[in-house]
């Protein structure tokens, strides 16, 4: 993955196997359907995903390191070989298009991505494109458009341009007044750059470093996604993964409530989708079942929690956590929600009656079980808290 571009069919096959592992376990013939999109699952945890590696993005990220090594002229055999074979006489990698072996051609396809994350800090100017690279505040082709239109060779390095100050070498003459003025400005900029043959060009990345970090690049690929504190609280909680994944699905409204099953067309549209725990006839959505119905509200009140009138689970949990000072509040919310789900299923499949006492016994048993994962001081605090209820 770090050397070759993986074919799309190979990635799709690997993703299919991973999806089977997540949703169907050892039985690949199971008819169990995914509860949430694979794209969402592959997002990092702080962006609302499960942190499963996106193979396409990872493959691209690992291949970008080859461009970093090449532009920084790393002292390796393959860098020297490619430079001597294809880029002698100061020709620029980023402007000559695809060339060379199949492997190198695939790496060169990543130039648009590399340009988006890196800009050069000029040393000798050998690897810097005069007109196209962002070595100044803006690319020179946009900063000096009149002068650019007179250029004889637009695909020229900054170092090669500085070798000759003769106008006729680089531009078609005569220059217009606007182009001449822009040339004088360009000369002033180059003079201030103090270009020297003793120093190599350095490429600076958007995360504020001259070193290419695949992990940082991978996370930058998701920078358009919104981060919410609730996901950090969830994954920092001390509950088991089973409970954390359950609550993650709850945040995304992907629990198999009657409302969700009807929306997925798993149950018929004319079937009863009223709440299993209360007699209000309200639709059994995730928000209602876990936080809004009279039964769940009485259960939360039993352990000293109440909820505001927010319209989403994320807002409810955020407000609840803000208004409570218990150091294990997130664990209480997760275990309380899980216990409500178990009790709801007992009422449906085992024909039990909805009772706050039954829920509390499930909650008490589960929170004490989960407390074995906590630090000793926190474990004692939870035990004292439970005994006080």
Helix and strand run: HHHHHHEHHHHHEHHHHHHHHHH
Mean pLDDT: 90
Number of DSSP-assigned strands? 2
Overall SS class: mainly alpha
The domain count comes to: 3
- Specify Rg, calculated over alpha carbons: 30 Å
Biggest β-sheet: strands ordered side by side in the sheet? 1-2
**Number of discrete helical segments:** 21
Main β-sheet description: 2 strands, antiparallel
Q: Low-confidence stretches at least 5 residues in length (pLDDT < 50)?
A: none
- Helical fraction equals 40-55%
Give the distance, in angstroms, between the N- and C-terminal Cα atoms: 55 Å
Note the beta-strand portion: under 5%
Pfam families: zf-RVT
Protein name: Reverse transcriptase zinc-binding domain-containing protein
InterPro entries: RVT-Znf
Organism: Zizania palustris (Northern wild rice)
Topology, please?
Layout: H1 8-23, H2 38-41, H3 55-71, H4 77-86, H5 102-108, H6 111-117, E1 118-121, H7 140-143, H8 145-149, H9 158-162, H10 167-170, H11 177-193, E2 202-205, H12 214-220, H13 229-236, H14 241-251, H15 258-263, H16 286-292, H17 294-302, H18 313-322, H19 329-349, H20 356-370, H21 376-388
What does this structure look like?
InterPro entries: RVT-Znf (IPR026960). This is Reverse transcriptase zinc-binding domain-containing protein. Residues 215-300 form the Reverse transcriptase zinc-binding domain. By secondary structure, this protein is mainly alpha-helical. The chain has 3 domains: 8-53, no CATH class; 58-220, no CATH class; 229-388, no CATH class. The protein is built from 21 helices and 2 strands. It has helices at residues 8-23, 38-41, 55-71, 77-86, 102-108, 111-117, 140-143, 145-149, 158-162, 167-170, 177-193, 214-220, 229-236, 241-251, 258-263, 286-292, 294-302, 313-322, 329-349, 356-370, 376-388; strands at residues 118-121, 202-205. It has a two-stranded antiparallel sheet. Helix 3 (55-71) packs across helix 12, helix 14 (241-251) packs across helix 19 and helix 16 packs across helix 17 (294-302).
